[in-house]
Amino acid sequence: MSEHPAHALPSYLDPHELGPWGVYLEQVERVTPYLGKLSKWVETLKRPKRSLIVDVPVELDNGTIAHFEGYRVQHNTSRGPGKGGVRYHQDVTLSEVMALAAWMSVKSAAVNLPFGGAKGGIRFDPRNYSKGEIERITRRYTSEIGVIIGPHKDIPAPDVNTNAQTMAWMMDTYSMNNGTTTTGVVTGKPVSLGGSLGRVEATGRGVFVVGCEAARDQGIAIEGARVIIQGFGNVGGTAARLFYEAGAKVIAVHDHTGCVHNANGLDVLALTKHVEEHGGVAGCPNTESIAPADFWALETELLIPAALESQINASNANSIRAKIVIEGANGPTTPEADDILTANGTLIVPDVLANAGGVTVSYFEWVQDFSSFYWTETEINHRLEAMMRAAYTSVSAVAKEHQVTQRTGAFITACTRILESREVRGLYP
User: Fold this and answer.
1) What is the pTM of this model?
2) Is 119 a catalytic residue?
3) What pLDDT score does 19 carry?
4) Would you identify the CATH topology of the domain 202-354?
């Protein structure tokens, strides 16, 4: 039987491409056998609904004109508007943004939120630009992607190197262009502009909640458990503090400045203050510096990668001696490393479940913006913890039923929900 040309993937979606999109496609291949009659729709998951590449021309402080390349990808909107962050990084690529958008589709469905998946980015290093230049880049980018975003279409949020101020600029630009204040166009805004309490710590808190659930399932007591963390921003830093407060020993932290270690446990509060003052963990008092290779090889109960993609790969997976990996970052473990860790008896709580706290509280913010009624931080945290525990229980049950990893269990859960929505909606026109 000849291959139908209409089923062939465009070259830029080549599943053999090295990069985050290739990793995502392999994950979809692994889950397809478990989708039953819904597998007829699986190509839906392999093709983003919409990919927008924009030129972002900006006048710099010195009077010259610079051009930046920006992206906004909507992977799937069968279950609701697109949802996903915007990152500013010098290595942003279309492949990366497509994969991150797809993982947002899976993540939203895994915790049963009424969202699809989207993601955005601009390829530049914000450390090399003034605040005024970053504001102009943000506003021009928002204007360029304004045709496809909106509170009922696609809702951006903070990601790598973006924050509440970035979202305030995006909300203001969109609102000015549309002639009305539209707080629900983004989440992760300042509280004074309709942002939600608890949003900054939400992802790290979600990592902590599912980490505690996983540890309980593995018979590990949190009090006295060793924890090592890669990344010490909002996600890694919040998770570190919550585990520290729960009595765990955070014995090592690795960030862009280096790796610090203390076998008796780091003083996380002192480390946080050091990072605020010095920009990274390197040189923190009462710690020893270790090489990155030694960091990954530390014997520990919990390992939390909370930095960038593909940090755990075939080159270091065999050296990892963690009982549980809780993925605070998006896509931190390659499929090859996934297989190695699983074969070595390490439980992996996947990113699409472990770091879904951020999008969950973004959903709360979105709901609050529509109702103009706001919850307390205690209410937010209670709702977040309940939803994360429910999602962990659901995914774990599916994984046990099919005798698969939690990642595959999460993908079965999420992809089934997405494709059921696709099937009942049908094709139009």
Assistant:
1) 0.90
2) yes
3) 79
4) Rossmann fold (3.40.50)
